[in-house]
Design brief:
The complex is a heterodimer. By secondary structure, chain A is an alpha+beta fold. Chain A has four helices and nine strands, in the order H-H-H-H-E-E-E-E-E-E-E-E-E. Helices cover 25% and strands 38% of the residues of chain A. The longest helix of chain A is centred in the N-terminal third of the chain and has 20 residues, at 4-23. Classes of the chains: A alpha+beta, B mainly beta. The interface between A and B is medium-sized, with 37 and 33 residues.
């Protein structure tokens, strides 16, 4: 399942944090995933964070504005009606680092979080919900008139 | 440093507690430049966790794409008026802080 090669590769590309994550998936939930947060590729970030690709689901509800006038502050709300949600992650495809935030949802906490993200330019925002039965996502295109990254 | 950057509101209603947290923080991405064209080093909150009665009810890992003065809202089961929440944050520079909020 976990080959020596994949472990080494993760350690070299993502540093010790990612290496630990590969070895101990349960702890990876809690630790700040350096490889996932610092990559500039959304697929790489998803790969570093989850095992496998998410499938689109209507049960993931992503609330975000159609047009964000100010990319520095884009309010998003992610909720899901599914049971046993473990983590929720938010990706912004067009950002220098696509992974915006990841929330660990312990048992007893509702699968609904709101936060505010930065967007550099118009792009798709994707929410990924991890449950015991797999990965589910929803995405939405958000138009940005003024970017929030850079100065 | 930076004690008291968090403003939190927690309200118990119908067996659930809704929590709203706003941290006063610049969330410097490391991509911005100052007037001399030098890059401003990244400084942002990486992890914010909320505990209720010693049990973690939320843990948020944040990247640089989280807005300035990050806001976080969620709801958990349980909680009563007068209870205490512990909010811990960790910066990428290693700074940490713990602040408390009362459930109303």
């Amino acid at each position: 399942m976990i080959s020596r090669r994949s472990v080494l590769k993760a350690v070299f590309t993502g540093g010790a944090v990612a290496g630990l994550g590969v070895l101990m998936p349960s702890i990876a939930l809690a630790a700040w995933n350096k490889a996932a947060f610092e990559t500039d590729n959304q697929d790489t970030a998803m790969g570093a964070l989850f095992n496998g690709a998410p499938s689109a689901s209507a049960e993931v509800n992503l609330k975000a504005p159609d047009i964000a006038e100010n990319g520095a502050v884009v309010p998003v709300t992610i909720s899901s009606s599914m049971a046993g949600v473990k983590t929720i992650a938010v990706f912004v495809e067009g950002n220098p680092n696509p992974l915006a935030a990841q929330f660990a949802i312990p048992v007893g906490t509702k699968a609904e979080v709101s936060c505010r993200i930065r967007m550099g330019k118009t792009s798709a925002v994707t929410a990924v919900v991890e449950t015991a039965s797999g990965l589910f996502s929803a995405s939405k295109e958000v138009k940005v008139t003024i970017g929030g990254c850079g100065g | 440093m930076a004690k008291g950057i968090i403003r939190a509101k927690a309200k118990a209603k119908g067996g659930n507690t809704s929590v709203k947290i706003m941290a006063k923080h610049d969330m410097e991405t490391g991509n911005r430049k100052d007037k001399k064209g030098k890059k401003i080093p990244a400084k942002y909150i990486q992890t914010m966790s909320v505990a209720y009665n010693g049990k973690k009810v939320m843990e948020a890992n944040m990247g640089t794409a989280v807005s300035k003065n990050p806001y976080l809202a969620f709801t958990f089961e349980g909680g009563a008026k007068g209870d205490q929440l512990d909010i811990t944050w960790i910066e990428n520079t290693g700074n940490t802080g713990t602040e408390t909020a009362k459930v109303r």
